[in-house]
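Hi R.,

As promised on Friday, here is the backbone we talked about, encoded as structure tokens. Could you run it through your design pipeline when you get a chance and send me back a sequence?
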């Protein structure tokens, strides 16, 4: 059996998105800035894609800027919020300890430029507390950036409530919605969001394309200077096929969202229940307030890396921590942020399923993870010490 269970890292493209892109590459290859009809046709489908994307999140088309993906959108959102703050003499930015590195590393860069960052704690359930945001906001806070749903443990933040606090206090609010887009209901107005990032390859669109939503009146800072594309906010000839593919994938995901989510939640809970039978194992993050396809466990006494390699031998594509940190020996900053100890955080496993997952696949994963964990513990010195009482179990 071959099972792709790493949909939080990237998703396979949908047939709809591939067809839309192919048609665009074969027939609508003009430059949207050209005046002849082939160019204007490209311009038309570009603007239709913008309307489609905006429609899904309750935005206006002019509030959407197409980018090269989630990382670029996050960078531009943070740089824009910071620049607006600086002009008003406000240099304080609030985020959380478990954001994606596209946010955390941009924040670090801004700190080198004189900004001050505060990272809100994330509690054991993988959630931030609105009252802690309220308490952290100062007179000189210019921007709050908190992710909609976490890419490792899948927990869903109370975005509407957090946004309401920011609105009341007159602070710009950005959310990295890369994991949420296409999977959760999002309405930028009801959710009190000023800026939002998304990436196509996380919802069955192509890689290398995404978008930044910026509320009318929020002045964006350019990361790329050049031509007047994207209302002069992002220069460079538009990647029309990718943008068209993204819009097709998002429209499809939005149209089937509830049906897909219901199916995935049932299978997710079956997988959580099955893996929960493994001794000295624990689910990471809240069991209910999590993405429909996300399962993330820590197993005591093993290394996540060995687990992944053995699961790969059995046809299962899984992940330990995030793709960005694999290859390094540091445990996931997300698991550390929710209070997991280093040793335990090393033994983590993330399985992220998609809407086409089946019960047979879930049961195959349960059976094989159980076997591999038991096998690895069989010759783990850490496990031996735990069993002999030389060291204490944490989980
Ligand atoms: C994948 C991801 C990103 C980065 O998106 P890219 O399009 O790969 O640059 C940012 N934030 C989160 C939460 C993600 O999951």
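Update: got your reply. Pasting your designed sequence below so it's all in one thread:
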């Amino acid at each position: 059996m071959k099972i792709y269970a790493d949909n939080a890292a990237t998703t396979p493209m949908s047939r709809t998105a591939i067809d839309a892109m192919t048609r665009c590459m074969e027939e609508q290859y003009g430059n949207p800035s050209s005046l002849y009809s082939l160019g204007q046709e490209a311009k038309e489908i570009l603007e239709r894609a913008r309307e489609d994307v905006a429609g899904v999140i309750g935005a206006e088309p002019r509030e959407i800027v197409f980018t090269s993906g989630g990382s670029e959108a996050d960078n531009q959102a943070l740089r824009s919020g910071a620049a607006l703050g600086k002009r008003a003499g406000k240099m304080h930015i609030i985020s959380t300890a478990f954001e994606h590195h596209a946010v955390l590393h941009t924040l670090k860069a801004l700190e080198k430029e004189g900004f001050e960052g505060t990272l809100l704690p994330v509690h054991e359930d993988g959630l931030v507390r609105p009252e802690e945001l309220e308490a952290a906001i100062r007179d000189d806070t210019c921007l709050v950036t908190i992710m909609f749903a976490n890419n490792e443990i899948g927990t869903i933040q109370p975005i509407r409530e957090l946004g309401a606090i920011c609105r009341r206090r007159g602070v710009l609010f950005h959310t990295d919605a890369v994991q949420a887009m296409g999977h959760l209901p999002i309405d930028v107005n009801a959710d009190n969001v000023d800026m939002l990032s998304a990436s196509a390859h996380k919802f069955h669109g192509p890689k290398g394309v995404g978008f930044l939503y910026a509320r009318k009146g929020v002045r964006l800072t350019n990361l790329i200077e050049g031509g007047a594309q994207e209302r002069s906010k992002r220069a460079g000839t538009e990647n029309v096929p990718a943008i068209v593919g993204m819009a097709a994938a998002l429209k499809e995901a939005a149209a089937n969202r509830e049906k897909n989510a219901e199916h995935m939640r049932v299978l997710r809970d079956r997988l959580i229940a099955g893996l929960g039978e493994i001794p000295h194992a624990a689910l990471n993050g809240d069991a209910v307030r999590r993405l429909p396809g996300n399962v993330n466990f820590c197993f005591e006494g093993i290394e996540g890396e060995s687990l992944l390699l053995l699961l790969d031998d059995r046809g299962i594509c899984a992940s330990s921590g995030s793709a960005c940190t694999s290859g390094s020996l540091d445990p996931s900053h997300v698991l550390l942020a929710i209070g997991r100890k280093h040793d335990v955080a090393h033994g983590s496993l993330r399985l992220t399923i998609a809407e086409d997952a089946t019960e047979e696949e879930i049961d195959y994963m349960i059976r094989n993870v159980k076997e591999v964990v038991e096998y690895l513990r069989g010759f783990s010195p850490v496990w031996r010490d735990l069993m002999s009482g030389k060291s204490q179990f944490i989980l």
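One thing I noticed while checking it: The pocket of pyridoxal-5'-phosphate is lined by residues 69-71, 74, 100, 102, 147, 151, 176, 178-179, 199, 201-202, 210 (CB under 6 Å).

Thanks again,
M.
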